[in-house]
Structures are given as structure tokens and as C-alpha cells.
Amino acid sequence: MTRSAHLWRWTPAVATMALILAIADAAWPSTPMTYYDFRSPLPPGGFCEQQVFGAGRVIAEPINAIFSLTTLLLGLLGLFRSKRTSMAFQFLFGLLVAYGLFAAVYHATLMNGFYRMKDVAISMVQSFIIIMLFHSLYLYRVKQQGRESGHGYRIVAVLMTLIFTAYPAAVHVAGESSPSPWVAWLVFDLLWILIAAQLILIWRRRFTWPRTPPDARVFRLVWYAIACTALAYAAWCADKFLCHADTPVLGYLALHGWWHLFMGLGFYYLITLCRYFSGHEYGFEPILERIPTRGPLRLSFVEWQSRRRATAAPD
User: Fold this and answer.
1) Strand, coil or helix: what is 305?
2) What confidence score (pLDDT) does residue 213 get?
3) Do residue 75 and residue 11 come from a single domain?
4) Are residues 213 and 79 in the same domain?
5) Structure pTM?
6) What pLDDT is stored for residue 278 in this prediction?
7) Domain check: are 20 and 74 in the same one?
8) How far, in Å, CA of 221 to CA of 288, rounded?
9) pLDDT-flagged residues of the chain (< 50)
10) Do the beta carbons of residue 89 and residue 286 sit within 8 Å?
11) Is 38:113 a contact under the CB 8 Å cutoff?
12) Which end of the chain has the least Cβ crowding within 10 Å, N or C?
């Protein structure tokens, strides 16, 4: 076959491809959109802290950045305390570290790229907590009424795992690419309805939960998580909708930073609750501890203890 024959053979395909590219270039200009612009300011005027104190500082929002670091510390605490147990909880606490780190860097720079990193991390934590809470409810059903009665729960558990493993990536891109900020907020905020429903179901079963005494303090974590999430949203709404020239005090309070603090605490308690219910499945006896052991400000943490050690008679 001659060279001219080769060209004749490929010319229609090349022409078709060129036409497709031309149409695509007209529909979607090659200029990068704000979503993909790493350095673009987001939001353009900053949060209430920057609106009150003004732009041009070396660190855009230092108070918000410092508050974000508390979430990083919570993740590190859980990461180092759970290092001898399953990798699943090290992964979740590691995501909490990533969320706190990216949130702090984001508020130090207000760059769009760091906001996206923070958003992916927090969405992954939320989605995987939904999976683990539902699996806890599924295992409760099996232990109470047998494997046959839990067949429907098992199907739903598998579907929830598939959906919420893909959810952070798919919904993040779809939601954040939308020009409306409400889309990005709703794909994250609406999931709290599902988490709250799961927590209420767990709370209602507190007296019949296997291997758990009726007065176990661990079920208080249900309300700790709900309260922290509610406080986080109250702080966020005040910072977002009430900040203006007549309310400079909100800039000093840096309530968006309180959003990160309480959101980090809420996730920390949710991971700790999942860790308690999962301990038995890995062959351990979960024990609820306080960090530090004394003082007005203490955190709950679940330690996994060997069943042999837990049942061994004292010397």
C-alpha cells in the first residue's frame, strides 16, 4: 500500500477527531476554570477573620489556622494510641490528621488547591464512618437474631460499602465543579442525617448490645458526636451569615476556626465509637479510657486489650 493510500485511509478519522476537538474547545474554553486554579483565592474575600482584619498579612487567617491544628493533634493522638491494632483505624485517624493539616495550610494561604485537599480528606472520613457504623448495626443484627435474619442487612451493608467508597471521589468532583456553592455544601451536609439516624439506632440498642454492659459510658459518645457537630454548624453559620461591618467581634472570635475544632472532635468521637464496636470482631476486649485520667478537660479513647489478659485472674 502506497503512502497516499495510507493518508486517504486515515484522513476521515483525523478530520472527525479535529471536528470533535473544535466543538469541545468551543464548549469548554481552554482557559483553566477557578476550580482547577490552585492559587486562586477561595473565598475571594476570606472568612470573617480576614474581612475584619484585612488582607495582606503573611498568614491570611492565623486564628483559623491555629484552630485547625487542634484537629491535626486529635488525629495524631488516635494514630499513635491505636498503632498496635488494626490498620483501619490508623487509616481513619490518619485522614483526620490530613484534614487538620490541609485546613491549617488552607487558612494560612486561602489557596483554592489546599481547600480541595481538605475537602477530599473530610469527605473520606465521613463516608468511611458511615460504612463502619452500618457494619456495626449489621453485626448487631446477626448476633441478636442469627445469620439468616441478617441476610437483608448484609446486602445493604455491601451496597453501602460500594456506594460510600466511591462517594468521596465522585461527589467531590461533581459538587465542587458546580458554580453554586450550595451543591458542594449539600453533598457533605445531608450525610449527617444518615449518620444521625445510625447513631440513634445504636443508642436505642444500648441495653441489648452484645458484650456491652447496660450502663457502658461508650454510648455517651453518640451524644458527644451529635453535640460537637451541632456546635460546629452553629459556629460556621454565625461566621458565614452574621459577619459584617457592625459585628467586628465575630472576626476576633474566628468562629470558622471553632467549626474545625468541633468538627474534628465530632469525627474523633465517631471513630472512637466505631473502634469500640469493632474490638470484639478482631478478638480484643475494648476498654474506654480517659485522656488525661484526671482534670476537667478529658478525651475518651478506646484501648483494645487481649481477652486473655482481660479474663486472667489477678496474682
Assistant:
1) strand
2) 64
3) no
4) yes
5) 0.82
6) 84
7) no
8) 11
9) 2-10, 13-14, 17, 20-21, 23-32, 313-315
10) no
11) yes
12) C
